[in-house]
Amino acid sequence: MPKQQNSDFRIVVLISGNGTNLQSIIDQIEQGRIPATIKAVISNKPSAHGLERAARANIPTEVLEHRPFANREEFDRELMKRIDQYEPDLVVLAGFMRILTDDFVAHYAGRIINIHPSLLPRHRGLNTHRRAIEAGDTVHGASVHYVVPELDSGPVILQGEVPILDNDNADALAERVHRVEHIIYPEVVRRIASGEVQLRDDTVFYQGQPLSEQQRRYPPETDLAHSSTSN
Ligand code: GRF
Question: Is the backbone of residue 22 left (phi > 0), alpha (psi -120 to 50) or beta?
Fold first, then answer.
Protein backbone atom coordinates (compact mmCIF):
# COMPACT_ATOMS: atom_id res chain seq x y z
CA MET A 1 0.00 0.00 0.00
CA PRO A 2 1.38 3.42 -0.87
CA LYS A 3 1.95 5.63 2.12
CA GLN A 4 2.07 9.38 2.37
CA GLN A 5 5.11 11.12 3.77
CA ASN A 6 5.02 12.05 7.42
CA SER A 7 4.86 15.76 7.91
CA ASP A 8 3.45 18.24 10.40
CA PHE A 9 1.68 20.25 7.72
CA ARG A 10 -1.92 19.06 7.74
CA ILE A 11 -4.24 19.13 4.74
CA VAL A 12 -7.93 18.35 4.33
CA VAL A 13 -9.16 17.96 0.73
CA LEU A 14 -12.81 18.47 -0.27
CA ILE A 15 -14.09 16.78 -3.43
CA SER A 16 -17.30 15.96 -5.26
CA GLY A 17 -16.08 13.89 -8.20
CA ASN A 18 -13.30 12.09 -10.00
CA GLY A 19 -10.46 13.51 -7.92
CA THR A 20 -7.69 13.66 -10.51
CA ASN A 21 -6.37 16.83 -8.87
CA LEU A 22 -6.48 15.08 -5.50
CA GLN A 23 -4.50 12.24 -7.11
CA SER A 24 -1.84 14.63 -8.39
CA ILE A 25 -1.35 15.96 -4.85
CA ILE A 26 -1.29 12.45 -3.31
CA ASP A 27 1.32 11.37 -5.89
CA GLN A 28 3.63 14.27 -5.15
CA ILE A 29 3.32 13.78 -1.38
CA GLU A 30 4.21 10.11 -1.85
CA GLN A 31 7.16 11.10 -4.04
CA GLY A 32 8.40 13.32 -1.21
CA ARG A 33 7.98 16.55 -3.20
CA ILE A 34 5.31 18.08 -0.92
CA PRO A 35 6.12 18.24 2.80
CA ALA A 36 2.58 17.57 4.00
CA THR A 37 0.08 14.92 5.00
CA ILE A 38 -3.49 14.69 3.78
CA LYS A 39 -5.39 14.03 7.01
CA ALA A 40 -8.76 13.46 5.36
CA VAL A 41 -10.68 13.63 2.11
CA ILE A 42 -14.30 14.71 2.50
CA SER A 43 -16.90 14.42 -0.24
CA ASN A 44 -20.48 15.64 -0.42
CA LYS A 45 -21.15 12.84 -2.92
CA PRO A 46 -20.93 9.17 -1.82
CA SER A 47 -20.21 8.11 -5.41
CA ALA A 48 -17.18 10.38 -5.86
CA HIS A 49 -14.35 8.32 -7.36
CA GLY A 50 -11.87 10.48 -5.45
CA LEU A 51 -12.93 8.63 -2.29
CA GLU A 52 -11.46 5.43 -3.74
CA ARG A 53 -8.27 7.25 -4.66
CA ALA A 54 -7.98 8.43 -1.05
CA ALA A 55 -8.70 4.98 0.39
CA ARG A 56 -6.02 3.50 -1.89
CA ALA A 57 -3.53 5.92 -0.36
CA ASN A 58 -4.65 5.05 3.19
CA ILE A 59 -6.21 8.48 3.70
CA PRO A 60 -9.29 8.63 5.95
CA THR A 61 -12.46 9.57 4.07
CA GLU A 62 -15.79 11.03 5.06
CA VAL A 63 -19.00 11.61 3.16
CA LEU A 64 -21.26 14.47 4.14
CA GLU A 65 -24.28 14.71 1.88
CA HIS A 66 -25.89 18.12 1.66
CA ARG A 67 -29.43 16.96 0.98
CA PRO A 68 -30.52 16.18 4.58
CA PHE A 69 -29.61 19.69 5.73
CA ALA A 70 -32.28 22.36 5.89
CA ASN A 71 -30.08 25.03 4.38
CA ARG A 72 -26.57 25.94 3.25
CA GLU A 73 -25.64 27.45 6.65
CA GLU A 74 -26.40 24.23 8.53
CA PHE A 75 -24.52 22.09 6.03
CA ASP A 76 -21.49 24.36 6.16
CA ARG A 77 -21.51 24.38 9.97
CA GLU A 78 -21.43 20.58 10.05
CA LEU A 79 -18.78 20.51 7.35
CA MET A 80 -16.63 22.90 9.40
CA LYS A 81 -16.96 20.60 12.41
CA ARG A 82 -15.85 17.61 10.36
CA ILE A 83 -12.91 19.48 8.85
CA ASP A 84 -11.79 20.98 12.15
CA GLN A 85 -11.47 17.55 13.78
CA TYR A 86 -8.34 17.21 11.63
CA GLU A 87 -6.93 20.64 12.62
CA PRO A 88 -5.85 21.46 9.07
CA ASP A 89 -3.26 24.05 8.13
CA LEU A 90 -4.75 24.08 4.64
CA VAL A 91 -8.13 23.20 3.14
CA VAL A 92 -7.86 22.24 -0.54
CA LEU A 93 -10.97 22.42 -2.73
CA ALA A 94 -10.42 19.93 -5.55
CA GLY A 95 -13.57 19.83 -7.63
CA PHE A 96 -15.85 20.48 -4.66
CA MET A 97 -19.07 21.52 -6.37
CA ARG A 98 -20.68 23.58 -3.61
CA ILE A 99 -20.93 27.30 -3.10
CA LEU A 100 -19.64 28.05 0.38
CA THR A 101 -21.19 30.46 2.89
CA ASP A 102 -19.36 33.62 3.93
CA ASP A 103 -19.00 32.25 7.49
CA PHE A 104 -17.31 29.11 6.18
CA VAL A 105 -14.90 31.08 4.02
CA ALA A 106 -14.13 33.52 6.86
CA HIS A 107 -13.38 30.62 9.19
CA TYR A 108 -10.61 29.37 6.87
CA ALA A 109 -9.43 32.76 5.63
CA GLY A 110 -5.89 32.53 4.27
CA ARG A 111 -5.80 28.74 4.51
CA ILE A 112 -8.28 27.60 1.86
CA ILE A 113 -7.49 27.31 -1.84
CA ASN A 114 -9.36 26.33 -5.00
CA ILE A 115 -8.56 25.44 -8.58
CA HIS A 116 -10.73 26.95 -11.28
CA PRO A 117 -10.61 25.91 -14.95
CA SER A 118 -10.00 29.32 -16.55
CA LEU A 119 -7.52 32.15 -16.52
CA LEU A 120 -9.20 34.22 -13.84
CA PRO A 121 -10.63 36.84 -13.86
CA ARG A 122 -11.91 35.54 -17.21
CA HIS A 123 -14.76 33.01 -17.13
CA ARG A 124 -15.81 32.70 -13.54
CA GLY A 125 -18.49 30.04 -12.89
CA LEU A 126 -19.36 26.97 -14.95
CA ASN A 127 -18.81 25.76 -18.55
CA THR A 128 -15.56 27.66 -18.81
CA HIS A 129 -14.10 25.67 -21.73
CA ARG A 130 -17.10 26.21 -23.99
CA ARG A 131 -17.29 29.86 -23.02
CA ALA A 132 -13.60 30.43 -23.73
CA ILE A 133 -14.00 28.94 -27.24
CA GLU A 134 -17.19 30.89 -27.91
CA ALA A 135 -15.53 34.11 -26.77
CA GLY A 136 -12.82 33.60 -29.40
CA ASP A 137 -10.06 33.41 -26.79
CA THR A 138 -6.71 32.19 -28.06
CA VAL A 139 -5.44 31.14 -24.63
CA HIS A 140 -7.23 29.44 -21.78
CA GLY A 141 -6.09 27.54 -18.72
CA ALA A 142 -6.51 27.09 -15.00
CA SER A 143 -5.98 29.22 -11.90
CA VAL A 144 -5.19 28.30 -8.31
CA HIS A 145 -6.42 30.97 -5.91
CA TYR A 146 -7.17 31.67 -2.28
CA VAL A 147 -10.89 31.43 -1.59
CA VAL A 148 -12.83 34.58 -0.68
CA PRO A 149 -16.60 34.99 -0.25
CA GLU A 150 -17.13 36.12 -3.85
CA LEU A 151 -17.13 33.09 -6.19
CA ASP A 152 -13.90 32.45 -8.17
CA SER A 153 -12.49 35.82 -7.13
CA GLY A 154 -9.73 35.37 -4.54
CA PRO A 155 -6.07 36.30 -5.01
CA VAL A 156 -4.47 34.13 -7.70
CA ILE A 157 -1.38 32.13 -6.72
CA LEU A 158 -0.52 30.36 -9.99
CA GLN A 159 -2.04 30.12 -13.47
CA GLY A 160 -1.30 27.59 -16.19
CA GLU A 161 -2.00 28.54 -19.80
CA VAL A 162 -2.99 26.31 -22.70
CA PRO A 163 -3.53 27.51 -26.26
CA ILE A 164 -6.96 27.24 -27.87
CA LEU A 165 -6.46 25.54 -31.23
CA ASP A 166 -8.36 26.01 -34.50
CA ASN A 167 -11.47 23.81 -34.41
CA ASP A 168 -10.96 23.09 -30.73
CA ASN A 169 -13.87 21.62 -28.84
CA ALA A 170 -14.74 21.88 -25.15
CA ASP A 171 -13.87 18.25 -24.33
CA ALA A 172 -10.44 18.32 -25.95
CA LEU A 173 -9.70 21.67 -24.37
CA ALA A 174 -10.87 20.44 -20.96
CA GLU A 175 -8.46 17.53 -21.19
CA ARG A 176 -5.50 19.82 -21.94
CA VAL A 177 -6.51 22.15 -19.10
CA HIS A 178 -6.70 19.17 -16.74
CA ARG A 179 -3.10 18.28 -17.61
CA VAL A 180 -1.91 21.71 -16.58
CA GLU A 181 -4.07 21.58 -13.43
CA HIS A 182 -2.17 18.47 -12.35
CA ILE A 183 1.05 20.47 -12.52
CA ILE A 184 0.02 23.75 -10.94
CA TYR A 185 -2.17 22.47 -8.08
CA PRO A 186 0.44 20.25 -6.42
CA GLU A 187 3.03 22.96 -7.03
CA VAL A 188 0.91 25.50 -5.13
CA VAL A 189 0.31 23.03 -2.30
CA ARG A 190 4.06 22.47 -2.14
CA ARG A 191 4.76 26.20 -2.00
CA ILE A 192 2.25 26.73 0.81
CA ALA A 193 3.28 23.66 2.81
CA SER A 194 6.94 24.65 2.60
CA GLY A 195 6.15 28.22 3.68
CA GLU A 196 7.16 29.80 0.35
CA VAL A 197 3.69 31.19 -0.29
CA GLN A 198 1.52 33.08 2.19
CA LEU A 199 -1.46 35.39 2.05
CA ARG A 200 -0.98 38.63 3.98
CA ASP A 201 -3.67 41.32 3.88
CA ASP A 202 -5.11 40.01 0.61
CA THR A 203 -1.68 39.96 -1.06
CA VAL A 204 0.05 36.73 -2.07
CA PHE A 205 3.67 36.66 -0.93
CA TYR A 206 6.14 34.31 -2.63
CA GLN A 207 9.55 33.80 -1.05
CA GLY A 208 9.03 36.88 1.11
CA GLN A 209 8.01 39.29 -1.69
CA PRO A 210 4.64 40.16 -3.20
CA LEU A 211 4.05 37.71 -6.05
CA SER A 212 4.93 39.21 -9.44
CA GLU A 213 2.90 38.83 -12.64
CA GLN A 214 5.62 36.60 -14.04
CA GLN A 215 5.71 34.35 -10.97
CA ARG A 216 1.95 33.96 -11.18
CA ARG A 217 2.28 32.28 -14.55
CA TYR A 218 3.20 28.67 -15.36
CA PRO A 219 5.47 27.90 -17.09
CA PRO A 220 7.62 30.61 -15.59
CA GLU A 221 11.15 30.99 -16.81
CA THR A 222 12.51 29.80 -13.49
CA ASP A 223 11.66 27.28 -10.85
CA LEU A 224 9.17 24.81 -12.30
CA ALA A 225 11.54 23.43 -14.90
CA HIS A 226 12.23 20.35 -12.80
CA SER A 227 8.58 19.72 -11.90
CA SER A 228 7.31 16.16 -12.21
CA THR A 229 4.38 15.63 -14.57
CA SER A 230 3.82 11.99 -13.81
CA ASN A 231 0.02 11.97 -14.00
C1 GRF B 1 -11.28 20.62 -12.29
O2 GRF B 1 -11.47 20.91 -13.63
C3 GRF B 1 -11.16 21.87 -11.47
O4 GRF B 1 -10.66 22.95 -12.20
C5 GRF B 1 -12.60 22.15 -11.08
O6 GRF B 1 -13.16 20.88 -10.89
C7 GRF B 1 -12.48 19.92 -11.69
C8 GRF B 1 -12.10 18.78 -10.78
O9 GRF B 1 -11.56 17.71 -11.49
N10 GRF B 1 -12.64 22.99 -9.91
P11 GRF B 1 -11.03 16.43 -10.71
O12 GRF B 1 -12.18 15.88 -9.87
O13 GRF B 1 -9.88 16.86 -9.86
O14 GRF B 1 -10.62 15.47 -11.77
Answer: alpha
Ligand 1 centroid distance, CA of 145 (Å):
14
First to last CA, the chain: 18
The whole-angstrom separation of Cα 88 and Cα 39 is 8
Ligand 1 atom 7, closest CA: 95
Give the C-alpha separation, 71 to 49, whole Å: 26
pTM of model > 0.90: yes
202-222 pLDDT per residue, tens: 999 999 999 999 999 997 654
Residue whose CA is closest, atom 5 of ligand 1? Answer: 95
How many angstroms from the chain centroid is the CA of residue 60? 19
Closest CA to 159 of 198, 211, 194, 109: 211
Side-chain half-sphere CA neighbours of 68 within 13 A: 7
Tell me if 115 CB under 6 Å of ligand 1. yes
| 51 in Cβ contact with 211 (< 8 Å) | no
Task: Quote the pLDDT of residue 3.
Answer: 56
Q: How far is the CA of 12 from the centre of ligand 1 (A)?
A: 16
pLDDT reading at 108 higher than 70:
yes
